[in-house]
Sequence to fold (374 residues):
Amino acid sequence: MEEGFLFKDVFNADLVERMGARIKAVWSQFEDKSFSNDIISKLEPLSLSERSQLICDKLKIYLPENYNEAIELLLSTFDKVVETSEMTGFEGFYFMPIGKYVSTFGLEEHDFEISMKALIEITKRFTSEDAIRPFIRKYPDRTFEYLYQWSVDENVHVRRLVSEGTRSRLPWSSVLREFINDPKPVIKLLEGLKTDPELYVRRSVANNLNDIAKDHPQLVIKILKRWKEIENKGTQWIISHASRTLLKQGIPEALELLGYPVDVKISLENLKVNKEVCKMGDEIEFSFELISKAGEEQNLMVDFIVHYMKANGKTAPKVFKLSKKKLPAKEKFNFKKKLSFKAISTRKYYEGLHEIEIQVNGKKYSKLNFQLKK
Fold:
């Protein structure tokens, strides 16, 4: 990756001109130069999603007005499918505005079948996880008929779409509130994927269940307990990966399901920070000891919770994983961890009193505070 590269730059002049040339090669009437110039002149100030939307909108202008004809033209420009189980690099982003084109202009009932065909061809080369969501909302029954068929497709990317496209809280996409309210239709799909041979698919299944667990923890625990009886290593991996939110919440049934008893016999001592005041952009270090009070080895999941000060003057907790360890009888572990307050795009820091709290197997132990200042 070149120095100074921005993610949005995957949509650049080269990509636009390449798209225009491909379409021109299968449809001689296509005004490829005008298409490219119309887009490239407007790219610079736009974000990634805005650039994708711009290309989508221009495709609508320069392609045939008839949606069916336009889609067939686009499909005829597609190169070979991705053969590897996971997609890497940025080449696939070429298909993102085409997916947007399908989900924006292909939602009429009479276009449904050709749109489904297009989404599958896109997902074999990139992903249609975002583009399929408008169809789930508008045509849930018809779309789910396809999803059930795709769950047994020989192509790994098609099977993954079944799970990833139905995630209630898919990153970079709109929330599917219908599945937050009632996740049962999605769970039926996941049941068919729980023993999938590909980790790429199983990871999506686990992430989908983790999304569901944020709103229906007991339902997911019930599912995972049932899946625990399945003698399949891949399924057992899903159980562990799908439990992330449940474990952070310290739900006893989830902890015990993964072998972390809630009645551990330990004491936590000497929790301290290396400084009581931390400046923005700096870091602090905290440390503590866990001492066994039991006569046998204990399986521990150690987390720490940072109670961050918010703009409204109140604090909000954020749980972080620290360690998974087997603590021998009558022994102790020393822990040390640095906590950074350097500026990042995903979190804004505010001055004020912050707290660090230690959590072991879902139970909260000691906590201390420190000041964050400019």
The beta strands are 266-273, 277-279, 283-292, 298-309, 315-327, 332-340, 352-360, 363-373. The chain is about 40% helix and 20% strand.
